[in-house]
Design goal:
The complex is a heterodimer of chains A (324) and B (251). Chain A has 324 residues and is an all-alpha fold. Chain A is built from 15 helices and two strands. The two termini of chain A are 21 Å apart. Chain B is an alpha/beta fold and 251 residues long. Chain B has one domain: Rossmann fold. Chain B has nine helices and eleven strands. In chain B, the strands form two sheets. In chain B, strands 7-8-9-4-10-11 form a six-stranded mixed sheet, with helices on both faces. In chain B, strands 1, 2, 3, 5 and 6 form a five-stranded antiparallel sheet that branches. The chains are: A mainly alpha (324), B alpha/beta (251).
Chain lengths: 324, 251
């Protein structure tokens, strides 16, 4: 009970901090937090597949890109943020449904390879389909469109702080929704599939159907993350569909911990902090970054969240009891 | 007595080895049947075929008069055929309670509920409680199944097989690896459930004391074929069966 109360307190402090940030943080800090939130949503969706269903997808950037391009396309025609993001999520979920049917027929490495190739197919589509995607130029001049219902109310989104609030609300909403979902019968069944597919089917569960649904949810989360990017950057270019971008949720999830719900968020936070620090010293930041990630993954088996819960928290408790 | 399941000419070959050779059997409601036979006789394969885990090369399977030969595993479970495994198959990273909640949720058709909380579902909770009581695992409800003792894992496995409220339940060596207390407990439960006709059991077992004490009917398989089929007394006196078993054990 006490643990739970502490958890709530921490969550509310964090939310209050996020809401107050524009009053004292600069543009750059807001930009960073937006990036962290986007990656968090991206990685949380990915971890529904990895940590909860036992499926390692290497193609999530494909759905991220589908979301980003769809939202950009819509925003270029109808400048409405909600419409853009909504279209992005729908397009991503649809793409995941179509490709998922083929992917979930397989498990383990075969599943991973299939998702990798489908992700790269989307990447080449982004390169080659010039009429729609703009090829290597990408789509440019995407407006940070206002939010609202035409003629009733309108919220200007062009200042960074306004858009920041939009991203915070959308991402926290998505995180809360998923937090709720992992306590549901649906996700319990996914965990069963992760532990033993055979036993799950002998429990009367149509395994493929559940895996497909998990894949669609993960795809929709990737697309939601993707659809928040074009209004921030005002452009979309093919590299967001590349497999190296698919590796980001893999890395941050491993870093934060695959068996803890908040692992991917913690991982995303450290990912951007590390990147931000290293980039100041060297342009070869990826090499340093890779080395650090390897070290962290080896040193903190099970991820940072587990390390905190099993080592740091008991140590802190011990200190507090001793002191008091 | 109503017929529950019938097979017609089931054949299955692994290379040149026949695991099922023209097996035609019928299982009646309420009759506790044991399938016995020497190692490699095709007992487990036969169960695998009936439950949909393995496809037969030819032959038909009827459940309650309906052809189920081509149905996938989960559809057969939904129709009322369940099983346990010879090599324990549970959900190791989930607690005992969560393990049992999965088939219960599936049975009650609640699996597509995305935003309700399992913990707060009383209907599921009560059924899970019942199942834990049946096999005697109440005090281990919140233990991770992978950390249970071997015997407890077997108990959990049987509870998992029962959880989907099957009308026909195959148990593949249900008491292997259990201590005597657990063994008696499980056999008592099987006998009780069988007597009040809530489930029909088909058991694969090596322990002949159990087989003869428990069964209403015994089917003897040898090299994938049925060599004897009858009441325990008849099987005990069957020369061919004696030959198969004695031939193996004496030499």
């Amino acid at each position: 009970m006490e643990r739970k109360a502490q958890g709530y307190l921490f969550t509310w402090i964090l939310i209050a901090f996020l809401l107050a940030l524009p009053f004292f943080g600069g543009q750059y800090v807001l930009y960073m937090v937006i990036q962290i939130l986007i990656l968090s949503v991206f990685a949380l969706g990915f971890n529904l597949l990895l940590g909860y269903t036992g499926l390692l997808s290497f193609g999530q950037a494909g759905f991220f890109a589908v979301g980003a391009y769809a939202s950009a396309k819509v925003l270029l025609v109808f400048p409405s943020l909600i419409l853009g993001v909504g279209a992005g999520v729908l397009a991503g979920a649809l793409a995941a449904a179509i490709l998922g049917v083929l992917c979930v027929r397989h498990t383990r490495i075969y599943f991973s390879m299939l998702t990798l190739s489908f992700g790269m197919m989307i990447y080449s589509l982004a390169w080659k389909w010039r009429e729609v995607t703009g090829g290597d130029d990408g789509l440019v001049g995407i407006p940070r469109a206002p939010m609202g219902i035409p003629g009733i109310f309108q919220l200007d989104m062009s200042p960074m702080s306004h858009y920041y609030y939009f991203v915070v609300v959308v991402c926290l909403g998505a995180i809360f929704l998923l937090r709720r979902m992992v306590q549901s019968p649906f996700v319990l069944i996914l965990k069963g599939i992760r532990d033993s597919e055979t036993r799950a089917s002998f429990a009367g569960i149509p395994v493929r159907r559940y895996k497909l649904l998990a894949f669609i949810v993960a795809g929709a989360y990737a697309a939601l993350a993707g659809s928040l990017l074009p209004p921030l950057e005002n452009t979309v270019t093919p590299p967001i569909a590349h497999w190296t971008h698919s590796a980001e949720p893999v890395m941050v999830t491993l870093l934060g911990g695959i068996y803890s719900f908040y692992g991917p968020i913690v991982g995303s936070f450290f990912f951007y902090i590390l990147k931000d620090v290293i980039v100041r010293f060297t342009q070869y930041w990826l090499i340093c970054f890779g080395a650090i990630i390897v070290f962290l993954v080896l040193a903190f088996r099970g991820g940072l969240v587990v390390f905190y819960e099993e080592r740091i928290l008991p140590w802190l408790r011990g200190r507090i009891t001793k002191g008091g | 007595m109503a017929e529950l399941l019938r097979t017609e000419g089931i054949r299955k070959f692994f290379g040149v080895v026949s695991a099922a050779n023209n097996v035609s059997l019928s299982f009646q409601e309420g009759v506790l049947t044991s399938i016995i036979g020497p190692n490699g006789a095709g007992k487990t394969t036969f169960i695998n075929i009936l439950t949909g885990h393995v496809k037969p090369d030819s032959g038909k399977i009827f459940f309650k008069g309906q052809d189920i030969t081509d149905l996938p595993v989960h559809s057969r479970v939904q129709k009322g055929i369940s099983r346990s495994f010879q090599i324990g198959d549970i959900f190791p990273k989930l607690t005992v309670k969560e393990n049992l909640a999965i088939p219960v949720i599936a049975k009650k058709g609640k699996g597509m509920s995305f935003l309700s909380q399992v913990e707060k579902d009383r209907e599921v909770g009560e059924r899970v409680q019942d199942l834990m009581r049946t096999v005697g695992l109440e005090d281990k409800a919140n233990m991770e199944a992978g950390f249970l003792s071997h015997g407890d894992q077997r108990l959990l496995e049987i509870a998992l097989a029962m959880a989907s409220e099957p009308s026909l339940l195959f148990l593949d060596e249900p008491t292997a690896g259990m201590n005597p207390v657990e063994r008696v407990r499980i056999l008592e439960q099987i006998r009780k459930l069988s007597q009040d006709r809530s489930m029909t059991f088909v058991i694969v077992e090596h322990d002949m004391d159990i087989v003869f004490a428990l069964s209403d009917r015994i089917v003897v398989l040898h090299r994938g074929a049925v060599v004897a089929d009858g009441r325990p007394q008849e099987i005990r006196e069957n020369d061919q069966v004696k030959e198969i078993y004695l031939g193996e054990e004496v030499l």
